[in-house]
Amino acid sequence: MGNDKPEAATDLVPVFMPPLAALLVHAETLKKSRLTEAEVVRIRDGGVCIMMKAAEAEKLARTRGYRDVVPANCWADWHRLRVQITGNGCLPKLILCVLGDRDLKSECGAMLEAEGIEHEWRERDDRMLSAFRASACRCDPSLAANDLASIAEHSQVLYIVSPSLTAEDGPGASLRFLRLGRRLLESGAVALKCESSGVAHGRSRWIELARDSERPDSWLALLRAYVQLPIQSGDDFFTCGLHLLGRPDLIVSGALLRGGTDSSGDQAWNAVNLFRTFAHYLLAECAPGEFGSGDTFSADMSSPRFRVRWEVCTGYDEDDFFFNPFGRWRFAELVV
Known about the structure:
alpha+beta; 3 domains; 13 strands; disordered N terminus
């Protein structure tokens, strides 16, 4: 007898043949409109799977060019790929508005051309001071008085634009633009604003975030750089900017935040604590597709536990730079 041992069941993973994503694309093409959750689940349940070694499944995913929809979380995870592979809708673009003096173009123009960065130069815009002030992050102050003074004196405006970003491309592109922004600031720029999420930063703040991004865990720097929170509309608090990192945004009703971990009972600060903790969990700790619609989450042991459900992003047109094609996670009351 040989020494070979049977393949452990835990070494095998289910793989759709054809991919579940391809089945969903075909169904949406035939329907000529978006699929419903019930339709996505029905297509998943009717698909054919084979069991493969995890390493072989990963190799197959690389040849396909994308990671297939996670079956257990198919409704939410389908939207990670939907626009990318159907072409129906708009993927995010990362747009930075950079302010500087007359020397900015001569100092940075050649660098942007050499690196193939799409960009546009404009003259002074008197609206910038009010626009940057309105976009400052207040829970994590991003503009100081000296930054506002420099913004008021700017004489040149630079816009830099990324290609369209898939969910997989987003983190790498956002990291690249974070570090590119640092180089622009070190070459004479005075402040910048992410037009794709509506958050503005002063010179020293952005340089600090770029340095923090060089640490092993760069997620916190990316969150602080690109995600505006909390935004309030009616009783809802929500984020804007996680689409740039390839993730759904977050939303919660203020009524569910009363009596949270913040000693003052302030709903906005409770929203900030919840959003930051959950976003860091998704980005740094949770395997792709592991957290599913209907799962539960709590920021800490003393905070309320929520039922978290995926939903389509609303409030923006699909071609709006703020729109998140990957959807959003809504925190709801946990009913036992």
